[in-house]
Design brief:
Layout: H1 2-11, H2 16-29, H3 35-46, H4 50-58, H5 66-78, H6 83-95, H7 103-114, H8 117-129, H9 136-148, H10 152-161, H11 167-179, H12 183-195, H13 202-215, H14 218-230, H15 237-249, H16 253-262, H17 268-280, H18 284-296, H19 303-316, H20 319-331, H21 339-351, H22 355-363, H23 371-383, H24 393-401, H25 406-414, H26 419-432
Helix pairs in contact: 3-4, 3-5, 4-5, 5-6, 5-7, 6-7, 7-8, 7-9, 8-9, 9-10, 9-11, 10-11, 11-12, 11-13, 12-13, 13-14, 13-15, 15-16, 15-17, 16-17, 17-18, 17-19, 18-19, 19-20, 19-21, 20-21, 21-22, 21-23, 22-23, 23-24, 23-25, 25-26
Length: 450
């Protein structure tokens, strides 16, 4: 009777306090000496608190069964400390227990998240030795692990050697190519998938839309949208956001707005993508309005959300509003400014001709400015007919960061008041064999039929 009651309590477990109460009952009744109940305790406790679950695991009165090991490894692979999944695998080996087909995928996932390609490759070798290379789930996780470590060639090798491929295999390979910035290869795999008579699912379509976004291929993106509509595929939040981003990055802002407004469920990324799209396409007021609606809907803006709204402020010349958002980000939302945030602020001050404030923003940065920020600041000095404010070291820093870019020497010379220094820069360019690449622009025209 007590067994059933404890099992029911474990199933209803919701808080850490409940967990501690049930644990005390289990210890008193010595039920934790039974593998079945110990596994149940680890399964229930790990979903409440990994640290508490680990404490129970480490103080087990018996050698934890493999199910308990797999449970802990699985939870760590999804946690903020995935490396602990790898550490547990090493401890598992020392117990004499043998990992099974459920253990390896979790460990490989952790290796991918930590970019521990050496350990991942060792696990791959073990998988081959124990003859589990036939398992599609393990192979799918293997190719994702290599892709996460930016070794897409190894991912493709695993994919090509698979005996059987399911929709997860194809989708993982496509996603791997997209993540490694090989969108054309992703589309080629999709064509192979269709020829092999495998039907793409919504996860496949998310990756394909990302490939279209990278390539700015609006026609293919529209055909995928058509496929979604004609096949009655639910526009869940991930798929809707990918479709929205594709239209936004391709400059079709009205279609992006239509997708956004038609989405039943939106997450923070959906709002941020739409705000960024409006800001990038000259709709600053609409971006501000949407930012306010996002907050009213209960979403807390993150680092990317503030990057989008600060960019809108910069392009619209709204310096005071930009400063307010920047301060709000730090003081209200406790978000530390990134290089991108500082870049937006320097660009905003520079466009407005407030050179001194742009300079002091750079000097307040806890990290060294990158070349984008330095070019933005120096260009602002040139455009507003100003010499570099107080500090010529910023000009020298730009040439140190990117010494092989001829345009940097021309830009540096344009804000120098000393003709000899300008001559030195031109000699330095000539000595390195550098030239300033002429500026260019491009436009895409729709087909015109006569």
């Amino acid at each position: 009777m007590i067994f059933r009651q404890i099992e029911t309590l474990l199933q209803r477990l919701k808080t850490a306090n409940h967990l501690l109460q049930i644990q005390s009952i289990i210890i008193k009744t010595a039920i934790d000496h039974q593998e079945y109940f110990f596994s149940k305790l680890i399964l229930s406790s790990s979903s409440i608190s990994i640290p508490l679950s680990r404490k129970i695991f480490d103080h087990s009165p018996l050698t934890p069964p493999l199910f308990a090991w797999n449970t802990m490894i699985k939870e760590y692979s999804k946690s903020s400390v995935p490396v602990e999944a790898v550490n547990l695998l090493f401890k598992l080996f020392k117990t004499g227990l043998k990992p099974d087909k459920f253990t390896y995928p979790f460990v490989l996932k952790a290796c991918g998240r930590c970019s521990m390609v050496g350990v991942g490759a060792a696990v791959h070798s073990t998988v081959l030795k124990v003859g589990l290379n036939w398992d599609s789930h393990i192979c799918n996780t293997l190719l994702r692990m290599y892709a996460a470590c930016n070794l897409i060639g190894f991912s493709r090798q695993v994919f090509d050697e698979m005996r059987e491929r399911d929709v997860v295999s194809w989708s993982s390979m496509i996603a791997g190519y997209v993540d490694c910035r090989c969108p054309l290869d992703a589309l080629a795999v999709f064509q192979d998938m269709i020829q092999a008579n495998h039907k793409p699912n919504s996860i496949t379509l998310v990756s394909l839309l990302s490939a279209c976004t990278h390539l700015l291929n609006i026609k293919l993106g529209e055909s995928i949208h058509c496929h979604i509509l004609t096949n009655g595929i639910e526009l869940h939040v991930e798929l809707g956001t990918a479709l929205l981003e594709m239209y936004a990055k391709c400059g079709h802002i009205k279609k992006a707005c239509h997708i956004f407004n038609s989405m039943v469920e939106k997450n923070l990324q959906s709002w941020t993508v739409m705000i960024s799209a409006l800001a990038d396409n000259g709709h600053g007021k609409e971006a501000f309005s949407l930012f306010s609606k996002m907050e009213e809907a209960g979403f807390q803006p993150d680092s990317k959300s503030f990057s989008a709204i600060l960019s809108a402020c910069s392009h619209m010349g709204l310096v005071d509003e930009g400063q307010d958002f920047f301060n709000k980000m730090i003081k209200v939302h406790d978000i530390k400014p990134t290089m991108e945030h500082y870049g937006c602020m320097v660009d905003m001050f520079g466009r407005a001709g407030r050179i001194e404030e742009a300079y002091f923003m750079i000097k307040s940065m806890p990290m060294e400015p990158n070349s984008v920020i330095l070019r933005s600041y120096i260009s602002a000095c040139r455009n507003h007919g100003r010499m570099l404010y107080e500090d010529n070291k910023l000009r020298e820093l730009l040439l140190q960061i990117e010494p092989e870019l001829g345009a940097n020497y021309v830009l540096a010379a344009s804000v120098s008041s000393v003709s000899d220094y300008q001559g030195d820069l031109r000699l330095a360019m000539k000595g390195k064999g550098l030239n300033k690449v002429p500026g260019s622009s491009w436009v895409q025209l729709q087909d015109i039929s006569s």
